[in-house]
Hints:
This protein is α/β, with parallel strands linked by helices. 56% of the residues lie in helices and 11% in strands. The protein is built from 13 helices and five strands. The protein has a five-stranded parallel β-sheet with strand order 2-3-4-1-5. Helix 2 runs antiparallel to helix 3, helix 7 packs antiparallel against helix 8 and helix 9 packs parallel to helix 11. The chain starts with a helix and ends with a helix.
Amino acid sequence: MNGKLAECxxxxxxxxxxxxxxxxxxxxxxxxxxxxxxxxxxxxDEMAVRHERLIGRGMKAAGFREQxxxxxxxxxxxxxxxxxxxxxLAAGGFVRQHRDVLLAGPPGIGKSHxxxxxxxQLIHAGFHVLYRSIFDAVRDFLHDExxxxxxxxxxxxxxxxxxxxxxxxxxxxxxxxxEYLFEIIMRRHELRSTMxxxxxxxxxxxxxxxxxxxxxxxxxxxxxxxxxxxITGKSYRLRGGGDSPQDAART
Length: 251
């Protein structure tokens, strides 16, 4: 590839094409490709690079705590988790229909692994995903409200196609948590999808957020069109001494 062509590709920001052009030129000569076939190959290379970059930006923006996948989940450890049901969620139908999902069950059984893995799959499918623990979400609002940033932080929680709020019920939340959570759920209701995990029974939510009316209103909207996965079984952490199905499998 001559210098002038390389400079043109650089100016046009066609880095994917630039990376593979030499190989594609040799391939075109060897296989006697016509102009249209050659152009199709180099454009496919550029599209592949741009897609990978888009996925990378999506993963970074999502803010996942861990890099979890559905492939490395140990499905046989807790049989109450239905593999088909999880993969159906990962296909994204509930996001397209603006429905919500709640995964409920005791700590340590893989809920966080599953929601992060589902989120990764949906990013690959082209959806915008945001993952936050329930504590981080409340802290975001408490911090930014002190600096008059409520609208800015709320916008961050309203934009994603899927908002994942993890770890509801691990401990009691700060005052005014109910107000923030209610506003998020209310404003996303039937417009965007929300996925939550809960380590405690739903009737305990009022105590956890210190606001029974707010908890009732949150559940009323969240559960109106929600798919509820009630997961039971053993804790990976208690058995394996780790924090994931992989840790338990190695024990």
